[in-house]
Amino acid sequence: MTDKTLVLNICGAPYASLAPLSALRFAKAALATGHKIQRVFFYQEGVTLANGLSCPPQDEINLTKEWQKLAAEHQVELAVCVAAALKRGIIDAKEAARYGLEQHNLAEGFVLTGLGQLVDGMANADRTVTFNS
Amino acid sequence: MASLHQLNAQHKLANCLKLLAKTDSLVLIEAAVALAVQADFLQQLPQGVSVFALSSDLQARGLLNNCSPAIQPLSDAEWVAASLEADRVCSW
What Gene3D superfamilies would the database entry show (chain B) (predicted)? Predict the structure, then answer.
């Protein structure tokens, strides 16, 4: 079974849950066996992975950087639910301007988007796999 | 229409059992792999359910050699394949 398209939906936060790490292992295995990850959607507490200001200790895995690296190497879209992100203080330059904030912290490679992108992925991919907290 | 149920915590098993059909598969991941060494776990499942546990999660918890022979350890690549072979993945 090769060349299937997958969408991953990550709902658990990094460090508080294993969801982003399990999903990363799943994604690496899928790509290594010839499949395509169309989109990774970060939802609920999972959006905190897109915080560009998180600084885990150097001897621990940096999950944000691991996802950025995987996305850059394999052209994987990192989509972040905008409503879930804004209420948790994850914000890009455009939204910061809209809300009159001086700072923004969305990590490079991630895009704030709507829940419709998850539905679109579920409708078009061969399989959607959710990783809960 | 077989589903693959992906269980990541022991306390979610009771809810999962309500929807687990005998033609379905169950994959234990993360902390739920502890179920693989519990004597009464398999008896709670409908007969015919295929049960798997992620090798890396078993190994991380020192359980790989204590896993019931009725539970098949899965590599990450086999996990992906099982997810694609099922009609859908239900994550608990």
Answer: DsrEFH-like
